[in-house]
Amino acid sequence: MTFTPEYTRDDVTPQRFFLNRRQLIAGSAALMAAPAFAGTSPYSTDEPPNSLEDITTYNNYYEFGYDKTDPAEYASALTIDPWSVTVDGLVDNPGKYSLADLIAGQPIEERIYRFRCVEAWSMVVPWQGFQLSGLLQKLGVKPEAKYVAFETVVRPSEMRGQNGGSIEWPYREGLRIDEAMNPLAFMATGLYGQPLPKQSGAPIRLVVPWKYGFKSAKALVRISLTDQEPVTTWKTLAPNEYGFYANVNPEVDHPRWSQATERRIGGGLFAGRIDTQMFNGYGDQVASLYSGQDLAKDY
Ligand code: MTE
């Protein structure tokens, strides 16, 4: 199991940029939707969001298969109610929380974020949810905690991709505490004003917009506070290709492809590759987290 780049350095076929009529219509619908969602948060981009169709039909969610269309086709099998999230480790208020209890008291807001996959495609997504920092404050992180680890649901009877393949389930991710406390780190429960679709990670997922998309784990069931760097799925599968940090960085190429540019999904008439920005354009908010670190080594 490995990620597949959309393009290699030498394989940029212009035909792939031509869009069909349906994509063009979806693109203009996204443009029309933009004003309603723009400016809802100082952390939101004013770039036009992708259409709901773009966002929910081109997904990575290996629990349901390896193809981009598998999640849309098969995620309906997942039961998301009831749902609980276990909180454990170095935390004042551990326990098994129902989803409602977990999110109680967290102000729900909208964040329109750029989303950049390590495979070099990107979207703009209007999420609803709350800051991870607010949840961590409520849970009471002990001073010894240095990291937060996330685990996602294991349910092979409902998730067909969990019956084989090379990923050892659950899908695991993690953040350093200072990363998790950054106001951009977000827990999404909705998309386009609706409950989060199942292929997008219902009922609750992480969104870390300055990191490659694989950090943004879907269908969370465990949050653990720890003093050790958590084991993470992609670092375990291919440590030479994927590190713990996974910050979007156009200057550090993947061993098998360039990260300098990306393809914005549903780019309409002017579709083409755009330059990838350091920290996916969120450097003002997050660059200081990494001062003194060599990001070519801590990739
Ligand atoms: N979360 C789980 N549980 N399983 C996954 O396979 N894939 C990751 C991330 N979260 C994944 C996951 C990857 S590789 C990416 S790029 C994003 O989800 C894709 O999110 P999207 O489908 O909402 O665009």
Report on this structure.
Helices cover 18% and strands 22% of the residues. With 299 residues, the protein is of the alpha+beta class. The chain has one domain: Sulfite Oxidase, Chain A, domain 2. The relative contact order is 0.18. Mean pLDDT is 90; it is low at 8-39. It binds ligand MTE. Residues 59-63, 117, 152, 171, 200, 213-214, 216-219 line the site of ligand MTE.
Search tags:
single chain, 299 residues, alpha+beta, Sulfite Oxidase, Chain A, domain 2, 7-stranded mixed sheet, 5-stranded mixed sheet, binds ligand MTE
Q: Secondary-structure map with pairings?
A:
Layout lengths: L20 H17 L14 H6 L12 H5 L9 E6 L5 E4 H5 L5 E8 L4 E11 H8 L7 E6 L19 E5 H5 L4 E6 L2 E2 L9 E3 L12 E7 L6 H5 L23 E4 L8 E3 L7 H4 L13
Parallel strand pairs: 1-10, 4-11
Antiparallel strand pairs: 1-2, 3-4, 4-7, 5-6, 5-10, 7-8, 7-9, 11-12
Ligand MTE binds next to loops.
* Largest sheet report: 7 strands, mixed
Number of domains: 1
Question: What is the CA-CA span between the terminal residues?
Answer: 20 Å
**Percent of residues in β-strands:** 15-25%
Bound molecules: ligand MTE
Which stretches are low in confidence, meaning pLDDT under 50 for 5 or more residues running? 8-39
**Count of DSSP strands:** 12
- SSE order, as H and E? HHHEEHEEHEEHEEEEHEEH
CATH superfamily: Oxidoreductase, molybdopterin-binding domain
